[in-house]
């Protein structure tokens, strides 16, 4: 079992969960996102289907700021994973996306109607400056 500081409970220790917990620590420790402004396994509906975003970080007005899609280390980050994250974006409208399998990390920032790749993880304060 692993302790998820966002759900505040023990969760099963799986390869994807290890990636999720690593990413939560990265966002907290490197980007400075307060744990109180992140959630994991956030459920939402899109059409007739229920989805769960692995991690969502919120701005200070409780609006989604960053959506993270986590995969097991052996799952490649490919167009299918990006397509899944883009579906989440349609509903959540976050200006930042992150795709990770713990080995490969891809970050994107929305600019107009497109997402541009980033070469680093911006700080929480930098993300807050992004126009909505």
Task: Briefly characterize the structure.
The chain has 132 residues and is an alpha+beta fold.
Notes on the structure:
The chain is of the alpha+beta class and 132 residues long. It has a single domain, classed as tt1808, chain A. The protein has helices at residues 15-29, 79-92, 124-128, and strands spanning 2-4, 9-11, 38-46, 49-58, 64-70, 96-100, 105-111, 114-118.
List keywords for this structure.
single chain; about 130 residues; alpha+beta; tt1808, chain A; six-stranded mixed β-sheet; two-stranded antiparallel sheet; 3 helices; 8 strands; about 25% helix; globular
Number of domains: 1
Count of runs of 4 or more consecutive helical residues: 3
Main beta sheet: 6 strands, mixed
**Which structural class do you get from the secondary structure elements?**
alpha+beta
CATH topology: tt1808, chain A
Helicity level: 25-40%
CATH architecture: Alpha-Beta Complex
- What is the total tally of β strands? 8
The amount of beta strand, in percent, is 35-45%
Multimeric state: single chain
Output the strand order for the largest sheet.
3-4-5-6-7-8
Integer-rounded radius of gyration? 14 Å
Write the element-wise H/E pattern from the N-terminal end onward: EEHEEEHEEEH
Poorly predicted sequence stretches spanning 5 or more consecutive residues = none
Shape by Cα distribution: globular
**What is the CATH top level name?**
Alpha Beta
User: What would the average pLDDT be, to the nearest integer?
Assistant: 93
Cα separation of the termini: 38 Å
